[in-house]
Amino acid sequence: MALTNSYKKLNAGDPAPYFILMGVDGKECAVKDFLGKPFVIVFMCNHCPYVRAKMPALIKLQSKFFGKVTFVGVNSNDPNYQGEGFENMKKFAKEFNMNFRYLIDDSQKVARAFGAVCTPDPFLFDASGKLVYHGRIDSAAGMETTTNGDVMEAAINKTLAGEAVRDSFLPATGCSIKWKNA
To answer: Which domains does the chain have, with CATH numbers?
Structure first.
């Protein structure tokens, strides 16, 4: 496990990079499908202890903001890395009873377009697809499982109220994305 901090490639106001990816439900999903309400793209994977620790907070946030905000997980890890790949994503989604889409980025082009480097690495966009926040899910710095999603929740509430998110970039910490041939 290589501990990594997210870095800033996209700036507040930048549009979400376009993509079409396959979900564990067998359906393709595109950025255009999320427009019309705020959405959160979380780069994540199956084996990372940081992702596993933050899953309860992500599921709680999706439940709290259901119908107002769309959450989407994107797995950009090398699908040949131990514990990763499409079939393991299906198992992970079932294990956590995920209440949001989980997509595979097996080419890793989407992660590179966003500048995602760690898991979890969340990006919050407004209803028009403009970045408003990139960074940590909550104030817990490590792998604490009693996380509450307070930082992301505050950013979502500001976005829903039409207000600017004051700190639009607060680096997330997690495992590095497992790049192909790296």
So the answer is: 3-176 (3.40.30.10)
Stretch (H or E) spanning 118:
strand 118-119
Tell me the C-alpha to C-alpha distance, in Å, between residue 11 and each of 2, 23, 57, 83, 98: 25, 27, 25, 32, 29
pTM above 0.70, yes or no: yes
The torsion of the CA quartet 14, 18, 22, 28, rounded to 10 degrees, works out to 110
Sign, Cα dihedral of 108, 112, 117, 122: negative
Q: How many CB atoms lie within 10 A of CB 110?
A: 23
pLDDT value for 181: 82
Cα 126 versus chain centre, distance: 15
